[in-house]
Amino acid sequence: MAKAQSKSEKQELVCPICRLLADVCECFEAKSDFLTHLNNARLEILEGIRSLLDARIEALRKRGKGEKRTAKIEVS
Fold first, then answer.
1. Dist CA 38 CA 66 (whole Å)
2. Radius of gyration, alpha carbons of the chain
3. 15-66: per-residue pLDDT in tens?
4. Does the residue 9 lie in any domain?
5. Does the residue 51 lie in any domain?
6. Which of 22, 26, 59 is nearest to 42 (CA)?
7. Does the residue 20 lie in any domain?
8. Residue 44 and residue 18 in contact, taking contact as beta carbons nearer than 8 Å
9. Helix-, strand-, coil-residue percentages of the chain, each rounded to 5
10. Could you tell me the residue range of the domain that residue 48 belongs to?
11. Is 75 domain-assigned?
12. Chain centre to alpha carbon of residue 3
């Protein structure tokens, strides 16, 4: 039978940087300059990750263009 999961096992996986920023945000007032800078930093990190993904996708597309994906075969 399945064991009961602990609280830590039930929590969903979250980016540690985003979790840290969320915890810090709870400690400060909602409209402080500090929080504005932290939110902008979080957005920059995510945009950086997106640019890495876009570059990888583009490299895979370029690599696949020269390859023939299908081949004709004769059936007798």
1. 44
2. 23
3. 887 788 778 777 776 677 877 888 888 899 999 999 999 999 999 888 877 6
4. no
5. yes
6. 22
7. yes
8. no
9. 65, 0, 35
10. 14-63
11. no
12. 30
